[in-house]
Every structure is written in C-alpha cells, then in structure tokens.
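Researcher: Let's walk through a ligand-bound prediction step by step. First, I give you the protein sequence. Second, the SMILES string for nicotinamide-adenine-dinucleotide. Third, you return the three-dimensional complex as structure tokens. Ready?
Model: Ready.
Researcher: Here are steps one and two:
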Amino acid sequence: MKITVVGAGAVGASCAEYIAIKDFASEVVLLDIKEGFAEGKAMDLMQTASLNGFDTKITGTTGDYSKTAGSDIAVITSGIPRKPGMTREELIGINAGIVRSVTESLLEHSPNAILIVVSNPMDTMTYLVHKITDLPKNRIIGMGGALDSARFKYRLAEALGAPISDVDGMVLGAHSDTGMIPLARHATRNSIKVSEFLSEDRLQQVVEDTKVGGATLTKLLGTSAWYAPGAAVSSLVQAIACDLKKIFPCSTLLEGEYGLDDICVGVPVVLGKNGIEEIVTITLDDAENTNMQESSAAVRKVNDLLEV
Ligand SMILES: NC(=O)c1ccc[n+]([C@@H]2O[C@H](COP(=O)([O-])OP(=O)(O)OC[C@H]3O[C@@H](n4cnc5c(N)ncnc54)[C@H](O)[C@@H]3O)[C@@H](O)[C@H]2O)c1
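Model: Step three, the predicted complex:
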C-alpha cells in the first residue's frame, strides 16, 4: 500500500505521521513545492520510527511526481490555510489552481489512485476534482465531516463530563462555519440519546461550538489546525487501505441522494478498498433537511466561482 500526501505542511505532515504510527502502509511519499521541505519532514518523521515503533517508509520529494508513481491513495493538502477572521471559502482563488494542477500530475503517475481532497474550501475542491477528471465517483473523497464529527464528540464529551469513548455523533453538510449540521438528535452517550442528559440550550451550545471549531482554533493558533485534521485523514486512509467498511461522513458527489444533485457535500458513506462503497441515506427530520438544503445552496454559490 503506497500513499502519497501532497503538501508537506501542517496537515500533510500530521497526516503522514498518523498513517505511519498506525503502521498499516508500506510507503508514504510526501510531496511539496517548497525546496527540500518534504524531504526534511520525511527525514524528521523517519527518525521517530524507532521511537514510535513503525516500519512505514516515509520519503519526501520537491515536486517530482515520478516518485509518487503507482500510489493506491493520494491525499491533497496543498494550498493555503485560512488566517484568523477568514472563511474557508475565501481560499478558493489560490487553492483551485493548486488543486487542479496537483490532481492532473498525480493521476498522470497514479491513474488508479483513490483521491482524498483536504484543501479548502473542501466541498468545492472535491467538486472541482470531479469536473476536471473522469474518475468514477467512488474514487474522489472529500475530508471534512470526519474532522467535524471528532470536534462534535469533543464538545459533547465536555458538556456531558463523559469520556470521549462513551460518546458518538456525526456532522453532515458542508465543511463550513455556517453549513455544518451536527446531528444532535442522533448523538448518543453509550447508546442513550444525549438529550436525556443535556438541556436543549446546552445541546444547542455544543452545536454552535462545533460549527466554529475550526475558526476557534485558527484564532488561537494564528493558522488553521493540523493534529485533528491529520488524524481524521489518516482514519479515512486506514479504512480504505484495510478495507474496513466503516462509516464516515465524507464529501461525495450526490446524484439524487438527500434530494441533491451535481454537488459534493458531507453525507455518511461506507469506506472500503474501493473508496466510497456506498452512500448511506438516513431519514432527516424537517429541520435537518432544511439545514441540508441551505448548506448545499451555499456550497453551490462557491462552486459557481469555479472556472470549469
Ligand atoms: N478539509 C479539512 O478538514 C481541513 C482541515 C484543515 C486544513 N485544511 C486545509 O488544508 C490545506 C493545508 O493546510 P495546512 O495548514 O497544512 O497549510 P500549510 O501552509 O501548512 O501547508 C500547505 C503546503 O502546501 C504546499 N503547496 C502549495 N502549493 C503546492 C503545490 N502546487 N504542490 C505541492 N505543494 C504545494 C505549501 O508549500 C505548503 O507546504 C489548507 O487549504 C487548509 O485550509 C482542510
């Protein structure tokens, strides 16, 4: 199993580190355009191998896509991150060009790769990859919901005073401050609905804190977060590499599901060796469905800015 991660910045390197620590891949190639950067990150990470006990080989390259040839999975994290006060949508101008050229170069050398899109605005970048390639939809996956769900569980556990392992919950919709839909109605603590423990107001606070989870960290860090994003990507990669058939919310091309068409937005999917093996359609109530339609309408407006 060979995995390429394009962009050896904060998220790309964190993703490579978690993939290596989980020790399921034979090889991870980091690629960046900044001279020597990916090589340096790869060397630093390899020097953690004996300490962290993994055998995954991590190499780095400055822009040489021949080194990525034959990758089974490729992760696209290249592009600028947001700064405090910015929305993810504002990144489209620069990142669309980067994602387009990176996708073309990746597929030239790894025509069978499954692509995981991380660069923001992620739902629109995932849609862009669909538009510029003729890949089947199961091989184009946008990562956002796995991260947002991890943030939701963190906030739920905080409100409940419970260990995170006791908590389950999922976030659907767009990967944006206003478009995320934390499914509070379905969230549980060890199979008991969280509404049994939390007041409506407290639960609403959890939802709001989850939606601005990325913005809160960007304000604290001065740039966007990387540990949880990297861990979330590594979980998707592992589910594909190990054919786990696990459900994650991912951005995927919808063709009628949830009443939506020709748009990529976060919905539950089953991930296995073929990438997205199934789109899971769950019954949303009226409020959730309205949120889904509004969230998608906002993504569509950003998609309209693409030159495709
Ligand atoms: N989808 C999500 O959940 C999620 C979460 C966090 C961050 N992000 C996004 O991921 C992206 C990366 O964030 P980061 O914090 O790692 O940024 P970063 O600046 O630390 O790293 C980005 C890297 O991309 C490289 N790069 C730029 N153009 C390139 C090209 N054409 N080819 C190869 N490499 C190139 C840069 O040199 C840099 O090292 C941003 O767009 C950010 O908004 C998405």
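Researcher: And what stands out?
Model: The chain has a mean pLDDT of 97. The two ends are 32 Å apart (CA to CA).
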